[in-house]
Amino acid sequence: AKLVYSAHLIGMDFKDGQGTMWYDRVGQRYRLTFDVGVDTFKQGDWQRQDQLFMNVSGGRSHFTAGVDASSVCMPFKMPYFDMFGWLPHAVKNGSKTVGAKHCDIWEHTGFEPFFMGKSNVTQRACIGADGVPLEFTKQMTGGAKVQGYQEFHISDAVVGDPGEAAFTESKACNEYPAPPCDADTGVASLRLYRIFGPPEPDVLENRNTGDALGDLSFVCTQGSGAAYRSKLITMWSVDVRKDYGQYSLCNYNGTDNVCQGAPAMLKLVGRRGSQLQGHAERGGQCTPNADIGSQYSFPAPGQCPPGVAPSASHGCSWGNARALRTVEAKCVLEERGLLEACGGELGHAPFLESKRIFEA
Fold first, then answer.
1. CB atoms within 10 A of CB 179
2. Is the pLDDT of residue 116 over 70?
3. N or C: which end of the chain has fewer CB within 10 A?
């Protein structure tokens, strides 16, 4: 079917996505592929997203961002959740006309798993006389990291077997993980920033960070929430090998922080362009990302013992991490006027005035 997609997720707007949807209820798999507008860093910019969900080995999802050389695959193991599996439990709540077609509105609210945790989701679909959804919306609330909405407009549906090619892994996922950057054997000393909140310890192990512009991509899109105002910001100095690996998402799993990824990539410091935006090769893994900033992952298997310098011969990729300064986030966000500066620079990267305030 043809798909038009819009969303507000992780503080970012995704507008007027155009693409295709494949749905196989019996085979327990579905795929959404579209080019969507994203104005966070640059007006008129866009991103290709390819989302593949399968009930294989307990559930697996593949998210690919970018096109050709810029594409990056992020696979996740999570329980399979049929995007329309909630309909047998839904309640009818009126009807409407979409285009020239009449459809009945069905609603349901419940918890749904996401790769960053669970969220309370209100789902609403308008189902045509032929049983095909014409509109579908998801409103996510209550999750620590999963909040926002998604809108799907579906048309020109064709019933039948699309063939296995419709559910074939993307090239980036077939070649996952991306290899390390070309062997620059040197070591860099990075100055990075991380937002955290007690009782979480102020450490880098199994955490994600960013340089000033990289962390600003979080702050400028999500910092207006009360949860961010109550947090702390630490500036770090850390020594790293420069043969960066693919960026790993590091999140709290209910017991501890863990970084997701193949064992080989978890021995390296990961890097990406902020929020996987821009169009750099491999999502910014091996490029400076001077316009949008870089974000880094620090998996525990790559950490050097105390007093050991990062090197391939030592079998570690990062160490000598030092917390240089910690301040209250609300001081930077409100008292120094960072949120106001962000509002004037969104869509016009690099955020130089915001960076000046953030680093002061």
1. 14
2. no
3. C
Q: Are the CB atoms for 144 and 46 separated by under 8 Å?
A: no
Tokens representing residue 267 in the block: 């021995």
CA-to-CA distance for 239 and 309, rounded, in angstroms? 8
Handedness of CA 278, 173, 15, 229 (dihedral sign): negative
Residues in Cβ contact with 284 at an 8 Å cutoff, skipping those fewer than 6 apart: 271, 272, 273, 274, 276, 278, 292, 294
Q: Which residue has the tokens 């961002």?
A: 65
pTM of the model: 0.93
Helices 212-222/352-359 angle, 10° precision: 100
Q: What is the rounded CA–CA span in Å between residue 208 and residue 127?
A: 41
How far does Cα 4 stand from its chain's mean position? 20
- Reported as a single tens digit per residue, the pLDDT across 3-27 is 999 999 988 999 999 999 999 999 9
Residues in the chain: 360
